[in-house]
Design a protein that fits this description.
Chains A, B, C, D, E, F: Catalyzes the conversion of (8S)-3',8-cyclo-7,8-dihydroguanosine 5'-triphosphate to cyclic pyranopterin monophosphate (cPMP). The structure is a homohexamer. Helix content of chain A is about 40%, strand content about 25%. Chain A is an alpha+beta fold. Chain A has a four-stranded antiparallel beta sheet, covered by helices on one side. In chain A, helix 4 packs across helix 5. The first copy, chain A, is elongated and about 55 Å long. The interface between E and F is large, with 94 and 94 residues.
């Protein structure tokens, strides 16, 4: 019966995931991919079951853990647009405030935006914008106490927050042909992902 | 009165936008940013009014036009993950099918994801995945007949579609420390943005 | 290029659909399936493109038409539950009022519930409950002026409205083992689907 | 005061529900409705309070339990459509993959689709499509650890999943008059509903 | 047949509404209620049909008009909170920027928040906050080109915007007992409602 | 690092909130605002961090508590409209039933309507309408077991419920000029807010 298979299938996948996540090194240090399992593909695509059909991961037997994920990305903008944002920031900060709110809302909506995501109780969202030469770097930190990680929430916060910045500066970035020759979102990555037992709270 | 100001303020911004968008060159050729107006910042931040407060752009006096926007981006993955997606694609394509649906839904939800976006009638969404060496390139084309462009819809489709791919291959991409050393979304940009009068239909 | 193909592909599908829908007989009379094309499957799955990938149908070149769809379905309930609903109806009608509202909301949300549906401007929704012996029959009529039909909206209204009835009478329908031996939703079908040119308005 | 009454009213209903659900027979065997209480209607309509007004059920004093519900339903299609789905399934499975995703999303959205439902943490969703002669049978299993059952979530998954199948094969099912003479959703029912104390985990 | 009745019923209601809205006086001057029809109740509850069941109003035969509605309301706050908002406004304006975005989003979501509302294309939203002695006054202007008015959208913008202000200053407004003795939302009303034929555009 | 600051910042704010909410007086008695802290504004705007940027409050280290909030508000209507609602209430109650459902849905959607709100598990919602001379008073009670209060949920229930009443009686309230001279929402306030340790359950 499908459900049996699913239950049978999960522990293997889960224990694998546990191993990964309960490793000693939970810092943001970035080992090369050597550790990445080059083995059976089917075991790796945890959202695809034995018969290859898409599915949610069964988290029913996972314990609640304190989880934290940090994602980061940047948007390249013209220096004149950066100037407008800076002035704005000094005076009102509405551009970044709007992007901040868009990012927080995207984090909370990840369970419906990413089809196979579970809905988890978000306990904290922190958004940090760094306005630099010709780019804005957004770092989003998400914390939850739940049965599954929150890196997708952090990634959704970053990509949506950067898209909101783009939307807010459209007229400033468009050239005479109505195109965006210099606007680009780059370097969207998960900086770090951590998991702690609920007992071992900070 | 605030509304008067808004109405007064719009034509200036709109005519500027019209100029930009009705330019001869509507192709995807990418002129350098020279054409970008280096002038008054306030005029450029069309989502911020005279007093610096965030606002939607008034599109009430804009005509309906046939609009089309194409956005593109890519996600860098390990060769083993690419292999899993390829095998999958041949057999079922569920990973990309899920990302495809996530992208289409994101396009339709842009009006609520991007705070200052208007809701526009999407007439067509096309998603094209190109699975290459160690990366998947997603191109999203959005078409609408409305009063405002759809590049934000195309960008939301690209970033969400790539996030869904990430979600589907999480276990395959994580290293032994549960981190994502090699996973990264890059090169998210608007390939082209076009506008045609409804009369001059193709 | 994918978009070209899509555009090339659509007219064939669309004209086919036009033929179907502009036929003389738009009444609810139910001809046998003989008319159903037994031919090429690819041409029939309009949400799957030439390469078999899921997609929305391009409705950009379709004219706005006045469209109307009627769907119907029923839920089988115990006579005691029917009695409770009847008494309720006489006194307050809250059970059916709740189902009515659930049905209307489902109609309006079809564009996000059914992944490949377009968002269309719903101009009218009519819900009609017929409380009979051991069943409640729900008929939902949806009207729109747009580029695509609204039968999915009517079907979503019927299935959701009947599910709301089920939710409202859960305690009454459950047996001593907490099961629903006699509760069942049946006969969900599209009664009729009509399309009129906007010019030829009533 | 209304709230007192509500609190007074609940235990009676809840204990009744407990009795029902903690019964020995939790299997899918279908006893006749004899066990169904033919008594006071007001006590049975738990979403309607003493004064007949619609309300949510107060679950604040219910313990968290591991709950599982299985619902099933089918859509009748022409043999040519079944053929198209089969071919598709072999090649890409996009039709069923789309329906699968629509079903999972519907399960997660039940708290807003069914007005009086609570939002519960879904831990697992399993969708199983069985493509038979002239019909597709969809079985959806939902698991949660919470204060209330998840049969409405399973039912929403089934009806929405079947509606998505309908949407994906519209052009194939329509006859020359644009009607659906042979398409029908039938037999939507709750196969089984189970509840286990959190302590007694599998 | 229910639909006939609905269609029969509409013109009476609509013409009545037309009469009301096409009156000479469309300014914000507030005549006394003398003009209010004291007659048949059934004719007045346009969301309740002849049999008393809730329904949407059929707007299918209504022409598109340019519509504008202005709503206003205020929240009473302590002088210390007003001071915090003022300082904030000078420095960043994040409190009001958040309320502004909450108001705009609420306007766009009115079609799902108010069960019987239609979804209409919002062309402009303007939010104006006036920070006074111990209160903040919010005025929201909504413009649309559609078949039905937008006063509900303006009202949703005002009440939600004021609720967001409340949420942002919770800790400042709570007394030692965790209560809100002085916080209150008052005077929520529709300042004016206008309608112009699309032909006779400004 | 931003997150550290956030964590450093929270305890001060939280303990302050604890003090407030764990005070002896949890009744609805309304002490004068004397207890309200007139001190440092930054400490009071808990949704704005040290650098003045909007943020969610970190509730990760807060214990789960049983929380209850009661909010109340009223809408002023003409006596003829009140008559229509009364007659309606006796016969079907659809106007108030619709407002009731709108209020419950608004309570459940507060986490997305109010940008900085967390999503909390609502265990009970009670709506009480009191139809009086020329006004309807709505009282909404919300209960949750979570890490943060639910007064915003109760307020959203009240303002949305009253807006739904307005929407249902629009035609009855409009004067000959299509204006609402006598319709007004007033007195929206939090009647009481309570918190109990989960151990000390009722």
């Amino acid at each position: 019966m499908t459900t049996e298979e699913t239950i049978d299938g999960e522990p293997r996948e889960q224990s694998g995931e546990e191993t990964g996540e309960s490793g000693d090194d939970e810092s943001a240090t970035r080992p090369d991919g050597g550790g990445r399992d080059e083995g059976d593909h089917d075991a790796e695509l945890t959202h695809v079951d034995e018969t290859g059909d898409v599915q949610m991961v069964d988290v029913g037997s996972k314990p609640d853990s304190k989880r934290r994920a940090v994602a980061r990305g940047e948007i390249h903008l013209s220096s004149s647009t950066i100037g407008a944002i800076r002035d704005d920031e000094v005076e009102k900060g509405d551009v970044l405030a709007t992007a901040r709110i868009g990012a927080v809302q995207a984090v909370k909506h990840t369970w419906e935006t990413i089809p196979m995501c579970h809905q988890i109780p978000i306990t904290n969202v922190d958004t940090d914008f760094d306005v630099r030469e010709e780019r804005v770097v957004l770092t989003v930190t998400v914390e939850t106490t739940g049965k599954t990680g929150c890196e997708m929430e952090a990634l959704e916060g970053v990509t949506t927050g950067l898209n909101v910045v783009w939307d807010m500066v459209k007229a400033a970035e468009k050239d005479d042909a109505g195109q965006y020759p210099g606007t680009r979102i780059d370097g969207v990555e998960v900086v770090t992902k951590e998991k702690r037992a609920v007992e071992g709270s900070d």
